[in-house]
Structure formats: C-alpha cells, structure tokens
Amino acid sequence: MTLTEIRRLLDERGFRPLARFGQNFLHDQNLARAIVLEAVAELYPAGPVLEVGPGLGALTELVLEAGLEITALEIDRGLAAILRERLGGNPAFRLVEGDALETLADPAFRAEARPRLFLGNLPYNISTPLLVAVLALPHPPERIVLTLQKEVAERLAARPGTPAYGGLSVQIQCGYAVRLVRTLPPSVFYPVPEVDSAVVRLDRLPSPPIPGEEAQAFYAFVKKGFSQRRKKLSNTLGIADSRRPEELSVADWAAAWAGWKAQG
Fold first, then answer.
1. Residue 139 belongs to domain with CATH number
2. Above 90 in pLDDT, residue 123?
3. Is the pTM of this model over 0.90?
C-alpha cells in the first residue's frame, strides 16, 4: 500500500497508530516486495508462513499473491477488522487476534504451528521476546526474515569481540546463519519512527551445535555468562576458562557447555 492509500484508509476509520503497539506501517511497495522475495528465495515449498504484526497487510498480501498460506497474529482490534475486510476472503489467510506472545505460548497453537517461514515487521518494543518465543516453538521455522530496529538486528548478527555481541547473538547463531540484508531509513514507514531499521534474514543450520532438548538450559548458561561481561567465565560460571564472555565464538560456547556438563 502506498502512503496515500494508508493515510486514506486510516482516516476513513478514524484510526491513529498506537505507539504502545509499535505501529509503524511500511509504505514503500518496492521494498515490501523485495522483503517477501528475500523471504521465499530458494525455499521450496516456502509455506506455511507465520507473520506477527501484519498491520494493514503490506507483506501479507504479497505472501498471498505468491500462493502461500499465512497465519497472521494481530493484537489491535481495529487493524484486525481491516485485515478481515481486505484479505478475509482468501482461504489461504488465517488471522489470529490477540497478544502474539500469549498466542505463541498457548499449548494448542504451539502444537499445530509448523511454519517454514517467519516473516514480519515486528513491534520494536517487544521484538526480542517475540523472536525468542518463535524459536521456542516445537517446530521452529526454517527461515526468518524480519524488519527490526537496526540496533537489534546488529546484535543478532554480531561477531565475537564486538560491542553488540552478547547472549542473544549466541542464542540465535547457535541455530541460524544470520545475514543483515539491508538498512531501512525511517522515511519508508508511517508514522516515521525515531530510529533506523534493518531487514535481517536467518536460515536454520542443518547441524546446530546444541541439541534441541538442551537448548533452553544452554541459553540460561550463556545468559549467566554474559550477566557480568567484565568478569572472566571462571568467576561467573565456575569453569576453567579465563576469557570474558564476548571473547568466545558460538563454537567456543558450545564447547564450554559440554565441559560444564562433563564436570557435573
């Protein structure tokens, strides 16, 4: 949808974007199409798709045009009503109204969710918890393509020894190869956010270094290690390693975890 179309539609409904829901609508159509093409590239079959925060459906309608099934999670009742009117007639479109974090934690939803692709322009205020919740699904997606605050995207892709590298970097890179696709200026959104954004792509690794059944315990181990970044791991984790947490690669963290388990 163009900026003019977005403004007209919102004005007709008397709708005003809510900052508490992180509502910034993507209005650059070429960019929206490029994001969806990036998401489905070389992923066959590409669906089903899970989307969080569809807004007015800028990405959703392009996914449907590609012939894919999509489940969209939307918390705002006004936007949900608009989405039903615009896209509800398509049998490949499923809308789940409510808090996305609560939906992702619901046992019934978790049991049935098997997305191959997770896509979205995530609300910046809860983007990290949403991503972690999707990764915790029993059947996590094979690919993830998201628009995030640039700072968060850089943390996902950060390398050891850099300021952005932290527990989230290790957690994500243990399961996925991460690539920053492009930076987005605030001007491509309405209303205009106060920060730059970035599109990030995550592709699931064929052989993750940490078994799925150990993932949550491993993440807690890493989080504890990064809880005091200035201290050596021998002090924070009680392991024979004099390095600080940001000095360890993902492979190093996996080895540290194996050693910690071995010592009992």
1. 3.40.50.150
2. no
3. yes
